[in-house]
Write a structure and sequence with these properties.
Elements (H helix, E strand, L loop, with lengths): L1 H5 L5 H7 L7 H18 L5 H17 L6 E2 L3 E3 L10 H11 L19 H10 L4 E5 L2 H12 L5 E5 L12 H7 L3 E5 L7 H7 L4 E7 L15 H10 L4 E6 L18 H6 L4 E5 L10 E5 L1 H9 L1 H6 L3 H16 L6 H7 L2 H15 L4 E13 L7 E11 L4 H10 L4 E2 L1 E3 L2 E5 L8 H13 L2
Parallel strand pairs: 1-12, 2-10, 4-5, 4-6, 6-7, 7-8
Antiparallel strand pairs: 3-9, 8-9, 10-11, 11-14, 13-14
Helix pairs in contact: 3-4, 5-14, 6-14, 16-18
Bound molecules: pyridoxal-5'-phosphate.
Pyridoxal-5'-phosphate (PLP) binds next to α7 and β7.
């Protein structure tokens, strides 16, 4: 290490010249180089020049890979929270880019020429699709829940909720913590697996501000379980004059059975018909739109929420409104095949097989053992945890590298392709790959095996 310690730190300019051209802004590259050289200076142990340039290149590569970019999802998880949940329908993308690039009538009434209502058209459409008196929208379902809880516990701080529904949804989102962080007091009723209408009735009192039901979205409790139906709870709420809200989470606008899924997901329409005063659900789960939190129900209560000071802080921007408006149009027109999430759900092994055969033909000349295997896809995104969807996957074994190495090369490609390794092979599930991406996947595999 003696020789190493005598080497000088190279000049920034010399390192910059030696680096391959990066698509990152030069100032960003410069910052990485300076920081790296500063670390070497502190450590006092200077590797040779090629090594320095190599590790800076790697660091720049990792930085570029962390940039938001489209990927191809071969995991078989349809609503992958890490992959941005629902891809948008072409009509939604068009609406979004048209509105993004231009001034627009966000809060301007073109008929009268004066200030207009933000999201008026969308609220009307959402109410229609939910068969509700009124609807509105905020940034996401968590925000919708915070708004509902905060507003209805202003005078009476208690939220009555079943112990079985104090769930954690994804990383760091615990229903119980959300409620109490906003000054509400939890009044837990029943047991994890059993809650009766009498438990609810006994918990209601002068301090009760809200009865909340949270759909158990990402897990299920089997066996000895029971909970009163929405209609019974709604009746009790009405009798005791307490608002009753249901967080539906995934927000299936159409009966899931119509998509070939056996597990039933409660729809906003049926939950409101059962007598719930308000429902909320995500825009980017089974609704298939952008990230948003949709609230629908009694006009009086929706108006109260919209008048709350917090509503202003949670409102959606024009891009989200444009994309959601176009997505809801598709729901209202019954053109759900245009909504990527619903198209992926509607696939069957039979519908996927011709594409699988085409893949095998396209990959035949590569140094690769490829075949089609029956796989199981999932809905993901905290929806329908029991539903496993029969699917078809490409099983790939490269002659020259391990499945993990192949997976890594595909992740480094452009666009990156992400699959999963099982039974000693890389798998790409065809259900979550859009048919228009098939050519890109074949090209990605060619490239990944070219430098084998
Ligand atoms: C997913 C989910 C949420 C959170 O929705 P976001 O739109 O991600 O904020 C809240 N409640 C339930 C029941 C969910 O399934």
């Amino acid at each position: 290490m003696k020789a190493a310690s005598r080497r000088a730190i190279p000049a920034v300019g010399k390192v910059l010249d030696a680096l391959a051209v990066s698509e990152l802004p030069r100032s960003l590259v410069l910052k990485v180089v300076r920081r790296h050289l500063a670390t070497l200076r502190k450590a006092g142990d200077v590797p040779d020049f090629e090594q320095i340039v190599g590790s800076i290149s790697d660091e720049l590569g990792r930085l570029a890979a962390s940039r938001l970019q489209p990927i191809i999802n071969g995991t078989g998880i349809i609503l992958h929270t890490n992959f941005g949940r629902a891809p948008l329908a072409p009509a939604a993308v068009e609406a979004l880019s048209a509105i993004a690039a231009s001034y627009n009538n966000l809060e301007f009434d073109l008929v009268s020429g004066v200030r207009g209502k933000r999201a008026g058209f969308l609220e009307n459409s959402l109410a229609l699709v939910c068969a509700a008196e009124a609807a509105t929208v905020v940034n996401n379902c968590a925000a919708a829940l915070v708004l509902i809880v905060q507003r209805f516990t202003r005078k009476n701080p208690e939220v009555v909720i079943s112990r079985g529904e104090l769930v954690q949804i994804g990383g760091g989102f615990r229903i119980g913590e959300i409620l109490t962080a906003n000054g509400a007091r939890l009044r837990e009723v029943g047991a994890t697996n059993q809650t009766t209408i009498d438990d609810y009735a006994a918990a209601l009192g002068p301090e009760t501000g809200l009865i909340l039901r949270v759909h158990q979205s990402n897990f299920f409790i089997g066996g000895f379980t029971s909970a009163p139906p929405d209609a019974e709870l709604a009746q009790l709420a009405r009798r005791r004059r307490v608002p009753f809200a249901v967080d539906l989470g995934s927000g299936a606008l159409h009966p899931t059975e119509s998509l070939g899924i056996r597990e039933h997901e409660p729809t906003p329409v049926e939950t409101l018909r059962s007598g719930a005063d308000l429902v909320c659900f995500s825009g980017d789960k089974l609704c298939g739109g952008p990230q948003a939190g949709i609230i629908a129900g009694k006009a009086r209560l929706v108006a109260v929420l919209k008048a709350a000071p917090l509503f202003r802080a949670l409102r959606c921007d024009k891009l989200v409104l444009a994309a959601l408006e176009a997505t809801v149009d598709l729901h209202l027109r019954g053109e759900t095949a245009q909504i990527p999430i619903l198209a992926r759900l509607a696939e069957t092994r039979e519908s996927l097989r011709p594409r699988g055969d085409e893949y095998l033909a396209q990959l035949a000349d590569l140094p690769l053992a490829a075949r089609l295997v029956e796989s199981k896809a999932e809905i993901g995104g905290g929806a329908l945890p029991r539903s496993v969807l029969p699917s078809l996957a490409l099983e790939l074994k490269a002659r020259s590298c391990s499945p993990n190495e192949l997976a890594q090369r595909l992740r480094h490609g452009r666009p990156p392709v992400v699959g999963y390794v099982a039974n000693g092979a890389l798998h790409l599930d065809l259900r979550t790959i859009s048919p228009r991406q098939d050519g890109l996947v074949v090209t990605a595999l060619r490239r990944a095996l070219a430098h084998a």
